[in-house]
Amino acid sequence: MSYRKPPRRQRRGAASRWRILPRLALAIFAVTVLLLRTDAGQRLELLLQQAAQNKTLSALALFLALPGSEAPDSDTRPADEPGLSAGSSPAAESPAPEDTQAAQITLPESAAPELPAELPPSNVTSVTIDGKADGYTGSGSIYIQNRSDYDIDIPSLLKAEDGVRLSGDEVQVLIVHTHGSESYTPDPYNNYTPTDTDRTTDTRYNVVRVGDEICSVLESRGIKTLHSKTLHDSPAYSGSYDRALEDISARMKENPSIKAVIDVHRDAMITQNGTKYKTVAEVNGETTAQLMLVCGTDGGGLVHDNWKKNLSFQMKLQDRLNTEYPGLMRPINIRNERFNQHVTLGSMLLEVGTSGNSLPEALASARLFANALADELLSR
How many structural domains compose the chain? Predict the structure, then answer.
């Protein structure tokens, strides 16, 4: 077989390609050194270490680690990320009065941190309040903090008929948030942009996220649940309960099958020197936020004929929760205010932890609460 030399131009091109390889290798080496000498390089190295431990590291996270990168315009949040859950209601909300329409708008979310952030140490003290050693009225699994004008007969109320019964396949439970922007102490993985002290309109990090968790568990137990994610306390805090009442009334008009309404809040315990207290319980080896039921009455002069039935239902639920998860519940708080609990039987206000608790602690107790509530409702 004869061999013919390639034309001079082809030989020159091949030689050129061989000559640029050392330059390319040098460029790659220079970029690598630059990355390792910058914060971007450290972030990239940390991401690669996380990838070795967690195979689900997203391309978006790697993209954000590179210098000068910006997140794409499209929503790349996975469907199972906090803020989205099974059984959630559609985004459309009930109409609001003209002077409060701004409270119903969709508000921007915080940007998720690229990597776990180093947060300054917070002045938070843990405490457990179960009533047994704190001078509260009660015994056994039921303790109360009575701030109403009424004498409370715990044994009689535990035996009384409360009228709460599930029926049919339609919506049975409504979850709302009078103070939906209430949030928790940030941690490296749940670090949000506050819109006020211990508050954020980002529903991935406030009590709306806790409502998502309760809704998801109830749905998984076969109890059809509607979750209203309207923030009634933003941008105006004053009038929150009036706006929440309009929301509850509208939802119940659309779904007359609703048997119970849960208004999910979080409490706050802060001393004058700025120390926060978080209420905690150890349940099955896990640290959870303590829960507290708040029962309204007609002691403040507003009509609420069925408050004793509501309190009876809450006491039975409290008994079940403390039996299944000892220490989870703080004493029931009984007040003169009615807190919109006059709308239907089975209404309650649920405080999930305090501002000192973390979001994971609140979510853990929310799951326990939802399972016990399902047990109570399905047993009737």
Answer: 2
In a domain, 84, yes or no: no
Residue 131 in contact with residue 186, Cβ under 8 Å? Answer: no
Q: What is the pLDDT of residue 94?
A: 33
- CATH at 352: 3.40.630.40
Which DSSP string corresponds to 3-71?
--PPPHHHHHHHHHHHHHHHHHHHHHHHHHHHHHTSHHHHHHHHHHHHHHH-TT--HHHHHHHSTT---
> Is 271 in the same domain as 151?
yes
Give a yes or no: residue 311 inside a domain.
yes
pTM value is 0.70
Same structural domain, 124 and 61 = no
Q: Which DSSP state fits 141? A: T
Q: With contact defined as beta carbons under 8 Å apart, do 316 and 291 qualify?
A: no
In a domain, 333, yes or no: yes
Single out the residue of 342, 327, 324 nearest to residue 252, CA to CA. 342
Tell me the pLDDT tens digit for each residue of 124-178. 999 999 998 878 999 889 999 999 999 999 999 999 999 999 999 999 999 999 9
Distance CA 242, CA 265 (A): 16
Spell out, as residue ranges, where the chain has pLDDT lower than 70. Answer: 1-122
Residue 339 structural domain:
98-103+120-378
* pLDDT tens readout for residues 310-332: 999 999 999 999 999 999 999 99
CA pseudo-torsion sign 307, 309, 313, 315: positive
Q: Locate 213 and state its tokens.
A: 């968790």
Q: What is the dihedral of CA 14, 17, 22, 23, to 10 degrees?
A: 150
